[in-house]
Amino acid sequence: MKSISFLFSLILLFSACDIVVDLDIPEHEPVLVVNSVLSIDSIMTAHVSHSKGAFDSNSISFVHNASVEVYEDGDLLGLMDEIAYYTNTADIDSSYVYHLNHKPTASKTYSYEIVHEDYEAVRAETHMPNAVDLIVEDVTLIEVDEYQSQYRTRFYFNDELNENYYRLRLISKSNDYPDYPIDFESSDASIISSVGVESDGAAYWGSEALFDDELFNGSKKEIILEFWWKSFYEAEYVLELTSVSKSYYTYIKSLTAHYNNQDQFLFAGEPVQVYTNIENGLGILGASNTKSVEFILPE
Amino acid sequence: MKNLLWLFGLFLLFTSSQLIAQKYTISGYVEDAGSGERMVGVNVVVKELSLGTTTNTYGFYSITLPTSSFNLELSFIGYEKYTIPVNLTEDMHINIPLVSQSLELQEVTLIGEESIVKRTQSSVIDVPVQQIKSMPALLGEVDVLKAIQLLPGVQSGSEGTSGFYVRGGGPDQNLILLDGVPVYNASHLFGFFSVFNADAIKNVRLTKGGFPARFGGRLSSVLEIDMKEGNTKEFGGEGSIGLIASKITLQGPIIKDKASCIISARRTYIDALAQPFIMAASDGNRGGYYFYDLNAKVNYKISDKDRLYWSVYTGDDRFYASFSDSYTNSSDDYRFRLGWGNLTSSLRWNHLFNEKLFSNTTLTFSEYLFDIDMEEEYSYNNFTDEFEFRYYSGIRDWGVKMDFDYLPNPNHYIKFGLSETYHTFYPGQIDLRAVQSEFEEDNIDTSFVFSQRLYSHDAYVYLEDDIKFNERLKANIGIHASLFSVGDKKYPSLQPRFSARYLIDENWSAKVSYAEMQQNIHLLTNSNAGLPTDIWVPSTEQVKPQKSKQVAAALTRILKDGVYELSLEAYYKTMSNLITYKEGSSFMSFRDWQETVETNGQGESYGLELFLQKKKGKTSGWIGYTLSWASRRFDNINFGEWYSYKYDRRHDISVVLSHKFSEYFDMGVTWVYGTGNAITFPQASYLPNQEQGVYLDEIEYYGERNGTRMSPYHRLDLGANFRKEKPRGIRTITVGVYNAYNRKNPYFIYLGNQWSDFGLGGSSQKVARQVSLFPIIPSITYNFKF
């Protein structure tokens, strides 16, 4: 496909003219941008910045001195503080976040109300899903060669009877690489239909599979993965299943589509509007709840 | 005695009423006296009885009249009027040859020979091929579809492309028929030229609304293109040599006055001309592009009642490139081919059952295929790795149809018929083969079928009647009934059609029309240019047929004894079950196509079309103006709100003029203006939440879909023809200028950067950058005719 783009570009190069034009687009009034993904095992943090007009070449900065109120099931939990990730980078805007020393709880609804004198107030809400236990049934060594080994793992979980969304990862944890994602392959119908690959001999290949429970709602779900791996370090292997909120799931899907649509020249699809659940603003307030299980690779 | 008188009176009454009721039919064919070509739309009139008709697509006419003596008069602009005295006492069959006033310099006219005021249908335009050939053209290549774009109610797409959009409809909503066979992709070179060679064409007619019942399968228009049949009297030919392509057309009798053929071919030679330069600049690597068209037609008159036609069209576009690299211990050979093309054929049989009943039976075949082929062979040490990738998609049709014309009397012209088409859709398949001789265990040889082949039956029957109620009121009333079946799913449809004309006086008429249409196949397109990657797909269980309802009303007027014709037409059209690619999806999405589309879309369009044309005199042409709105709505696009259709063009103006200075010199000028296309352009940007696998610094926010307008499009083209008679024929040199004042019309716009200084202290500013395609382009073409 890149050859097509290249050839077509050649034609246009010989004939095209590229000039700067005045384009009549609506004046953009910057709004607050909130990026926050709540996790059961972490304190609550939110990165608050602002949008800028399409022709604004300035960099985007962190919005200081915003009032970020956090609610749990409608009750005020508190006001977030502004902190720097690392004190030695406190002069870099990207190192700041707002945080509240509180860890979210499953099955509760969390909302933010953010006010700043320079922007319209924003509000967002998300629901923390329940995590599901993973049971690894077996891990089998299929094949060994000089460079790597092929493994197959079979595991299952029980899905609750309502709309649920999941993210699956396979990770190698070692001292040098504490969170190293491993690519895996799966022909599971739910995974490949969510990714968008026809289930006809094709399979999903990647390090993070995002899928919903439309095909197995309320049932026991078994998944088989295969992966090729050669570990040079002593490591533990972890299968991680994260339950994510619907808004976060939609956000990741639209962000991925938006990303994949970049730089496609005339072969691009229609522009993708990235999902947001921030009222009067942009960004995402999502929630995730992870359960993981360690397993050992057979010799 | 009284009884005798009474009986005699009764006898007189009986016989006189029988005499009054006695009617007979005159029928026959009208053809060009010089070539034998059957003529369409010739007026056949009996002034004494104020009755008349016109010849049909095959040059056939039939008129039923009371027994009497009268003059049968035939007229067609550019031909001498033909009058024949008739004493009608029985059914008669009269074939009539019309003599051209001048072979080369016929006065051109825009619409069909029946006056625009008297024609029942509104929303129909006949474009004489001679008019098309006299228009200034891009790189000297006359183009049927580009001429269509100059008509009111018809929008062009992107700069320079041949795609057309009729009354707010999409590019797939136009049924393009070449000798009755659908053509699925009518574009060469990304839409810069169409596949139709004007030298092989006899007739072009566009119907935009008020569709008669015989048409179906598309929502927005029917473009009928009829090929010439071939001169049955003598051999002849014409051709041209242009800047990028040459063409030749040869025609002549196989058996004089009985059978003839015509062959027409066109090919570009950019690749041949550029090849030495490409090889010199790239160390021997090859690459190029070409397209060709080949039309052929044979017609055979079996008898006065039967005639056979066989026509075929084939055309292809081909991109190709090959690279070779050699190193000390290895070599790499790479070949790439990209192509698309059509193959269509029709076999038609005209049969005259009797003077009142004419039939045409057609067998059709049409295929469109797009494919990409990449091969690589990499040799190193004693190993050779091979890689082959092939992607292809297409559509294939087999069809049969029967059409009947029945003219029981001058007040009724009945058409009825049936059709069945068997479609095969193959919306996307990849064949992949990878051989690594060193690592045989990793070899691949497989096919990925992202969208299964689909088969469907598309059948319809129709009945329509063109009724003359009285001298002022005529109507065309019909019904089109179709059944589309794919798998276990069936989609029946009843589509009423109606159009009427009221003659206010000899110079004024008012018209109204209503049509319901259903379209069972769809074109998935998201290309900004006329890319061949658009995919035809059928309606399925998930994806329903598109539907439309259109109402139109028109006022028409002729001025100065028919020298000028003026039409003001308003229309309103609604569409349902539209489909479009989901955000971010394209033909490169490796999924079943049904997973990549948004369905149940709605469309609405309305507008006003003003059309003034001059048909006679040394100066001829037209001015067209369209004021229109077109919008769309999908549940998951633009937050479910209505948004401007991409080709929503508020104002569209076309001025087409030609002036004949002498027998040997004429000039043409074309000026077009259109409101800029609607685009989705970033309104803002912001920071993303960091996610695995997504490497973005900022996300663009787009606001309303198609909420931004490119700058208006306008362009002036000039052309001149210099003719000279030569011993063996006529030669014409055509010079032209495309985009005479070098307007930088927008092709597409993107968010880019402008650097103020490329040095260390330089900075960039985000700006809107516009890509334009065609600057001022002169052309010269050598034409010959013998």
State the main characteristics.
heterodimer, A: about 300 residues, mainly beta, 9-stranded mixed beta sheet, 4-stranded antiparallel beta sheet, 20 strands, globular, B: about 775 residues, 22-stranded antiparallel barrel, 5-stranded mixed beta sheet, 49 strands
Give the topology, please.
The complex is a heterodimer of chains A (299) and B (786).
Chain A (H helix, E strand, L loop, with lengths): L1 H14 L1 E5 L10 E8 L4 E7 L1 E2 L13 E6 L2 E5 L1 E4 L11 E5 L8 E8 L2 E9 L7 E10 L4 E10 L6 E10 L5 E2 L2 E3 L2 H7 L8 E3 L1 E5 L7 E10 L5 E10 L1 H15 L21 E14 L4
Chain B lengths: L1 H20 L1 E10 L10 E4 L4 E4 L5 E7 L2 E7 L6 E6 L4 E2 L2 E3 L25 E3 L2 H6 L9 H5 L5 E3 L7 E3 L7 E5 L2 E2 L4 E2 L4 E2 L6 E7 L13 E7 L8 E6 L3 E11 L3 E10 L1 H12 L4 E16 L4 E21 L3 E25 L2 E24 L2 E27 L2 E25 L7 E6 L4 E15 L4 E14 L2 E17 L2 E12 L1 E4 L10 E4 L7 E14 L4 E18 L15 E18 L4 E15 L9 E2 L6 E12 L2 E10 L3 E2 L4 E3 L12 E3 L6 E2 L3 E14 L2 E10 L7 E10 L8 E9 L4 E9 L1
Parallel strand pairs in B: 1-7, 1-8, 12-17
Antiparallel strand pairs in B: 1-4, 2-3, 2-5, 5-6, 9-16, 10-11, 12-13, 14-15, 16-17, 18-19, 18-49, 19-20, 20-21, 21-22, 22-23, 23-24, 24-25, 25-26, 26-27, 26-28, 28-29, 29-30, 30-31, 31-34, 32-33, 34-35, 35-36, 36-37, 37-38, 37-39, 39-40, 40-45, 41-44, 42-43, 45-46, 46-49, 47-48
Summed up:
The complex is a heterodimer of chains A (299) and B (786). Chain A is 12% helix and 45% strand.
Strand content of chain B: over 45%
| Poorly predicted runs of chain A | 1-7
Main beta-sheet annotation of chain A: 9 strands, mixed
Largest sheet: number of strands, sense, barrel closure of chain B: 22 strands, antiparallel, barrel
Rg of chain A over CA atoms, rounded to whole Å, is: 23 Å
Overall pLDDT metric of chain A: 85
CA-to-CA gap between the ends of chain A?
42 Å
Mean pLDDT of chain B comes to 86
- Give the distance, in angstroms, between the N- and C-terminal Cα atoms of chain B: 80 Å
Got a strand count of chain A?
20
- What is the molecular shape of chain A? globular
Oligomer: heterodimer
User: Which sequence of SSEs, written as H and E, runs from N to C of chain A?
Assistant: HEEEEEEEEEEEEEEEHEEEEHE
SS class of chain A: mainly beta
Q: Which word captures the global form of chain B? A: globular
Number of strands of chain B: 49
> What count of helical segments of chain A does DSSP give?
3
Percentage of residues in helical conformation of chain B: under 10%
Share in β-strands of chain A: over 45%
